[in-house]
Amino acid sequence: MKVNVADRLAALRTRMQETGIDLVALGPGAHMHWVAGFHPHPDERPCLLLIGPQREAFLMPSLNAEGARVDTDIAFYPWSDDTGPTAALAAALDAVGASDAGVVSLDETMRADFALLLLGALPKARHGFAGETVGALRMKKSEAEYRELKMNARLDDVAMQTAYAAIRPGISERDIAATVRAQFAADGARPMFTIIGSGPNGAFPHHSVSDRVLQRGDAVVIDIGGSRGDFPSDMTRMAVVGEAPEGYAEVHAVVEAAVRAALAAARPGVRAKTVDAAARTVITDAGYGEYFVHRTGHGLGLEIHEPPYITSTSETVLEAGMVFSIEPGIYLPGRFGIRLEDIVFLREDGPEILSDLPRDVRVCG
Questions:
Q1: Percentage of residues in the chain having pLDDT higher than 70
Q2: Contacts of residue 180, Cβ cutoff 8 Å, sequence gap at least 6
Q3: Would you call 339 helix, strand, or coil by DSSP?
Q4: Buried b vs exposed e over 331-351: b needs ≥16 C-beta within 10 Å?
Q5: How far apart are CA 141 and CA 322, in angstroms?
Q6: Which single residue of 89, 145, 170, 182 has CA 20 to 30 Å from 226?
Q7: Residue 177: exposure state from Cβ atoms within 10 A (0-12, 13-18, ≥19)
């Protein structure tokens, strides 16, 4: 998706003024990509996008400069292996008006050696993290970003139905995952992750795949996502092989009620912890509280997991334009797990679910 770099720099500088930040420093990754529309290959050579009150510049390894120039017209301060980055960094800081910066907003995902190099050049600076500057802006998606997220959700719906079609007694989790990845690839998307948790494996929330062969009566957790363009999808649905295991219907109904409660609570102006509490209360009141072992949701954007996080302690105030998951679950050790996940785009009147696929359990095989 084409990024208007000038608009994003202007929005970031407004945020810098509001928060008293003199310099934002970003390493190769999602924050840099959001601002500049790309990021160079991340390796051990220091590479930083430095945004001052009025000007911006890249500290750029010479090896990457020619390839990166096609993506940006931001000034480069290149350095080579034989000279090192120190002099180029000092020049770049001076160019953006930040050689005496008092408060620096550091990309929390950059390499520690990059951060220490920068802080060493600014010995009097205090620092915070870019989650308060770039991250705060990234949480609210534009309508163009919404359209890409919606397109990827539709591809996820197709891939999920491919998984349903593959499920039968005798097939392995690994083989189901392969069919999902193949479907994403056929639709021009990169498979991002695949969780196929059958039977007792479904009770491990972050199970990936294994060689376990599905058996009649298994419940199967299917959590998949892919990306065509900059934004990924993420969705979890449930299937059973032939018939559901004992007690499945009751637990599925509780998780579905928790999803609905969280959806009802998610409104602009509400704190994220209120949404988590809505889902958690349903599950706790049904007697399964100890088996809901993770947060209710996470943001989705350039990264699969990013703010806002829908946790029991999050004070983040939800705003229209935020995108996040609603995904309560119940995990019964040795038996099965159930998680139902939808990504929502928060509108002024509440959440819009991006998937068109029902959350009903699918009977397969």
A1: 100
A2: 159, 160, 162, 163, 191, 194, 196, 222, 224
A3: strand
A4: bbeebbbbbbbbbbbbeeeeb
A5: 6
A6: 170
A7: buried
